[in-house]
Specification:
- The protein is an all-alpha fold and about 80 residues long.
- The protein is built from two helices and no strands.
- It has a domain of about 35 residues.
- The longest helix has 14 residues.
- It is elongated, with a radius of gyration of 28 Å.
């Protein structure tokens, strides 16, 4: 028979998150991925169903570039003055 862990008496069940966390900055490490990002990069969060389709940022950027190039550019029509 497996033993189950019993809660000690007097220890209330904590259902809410603490209002404050103590972070030990002495144990922190630099971000190892920071050097891989260019300075002008923008992070975008994709929904899980969309992220499942695109396996890399290159494929997302390629598709977005093709959409942008296919978008219709606004044409500037010259107004002709018929009263001249």
């Amino acid at each position: 028979m497996k033993k189950t862990l019993a809660r000690k008496r007097g220890q209330p069940k904590q259902e809410e998150l603490p209002s404050e966390y103590r972070f030990d900055y002495r144990k922190s490490k630099p971000n190892r991925f920071a050097s891989k990002m260019s300075e002008d990069a923008i992070a975008v969060v994709l929904e899980p169903d969309i992220a499942a389709i695109f396996k890399s940022s290159k494929t997302v950027n390629d598709l977005l570039r093709s959409i942008v190039s296919a978008m219709r550019q606004p044409s500037r029509k010259k107004r002709t003055n018929l009263t001249r």
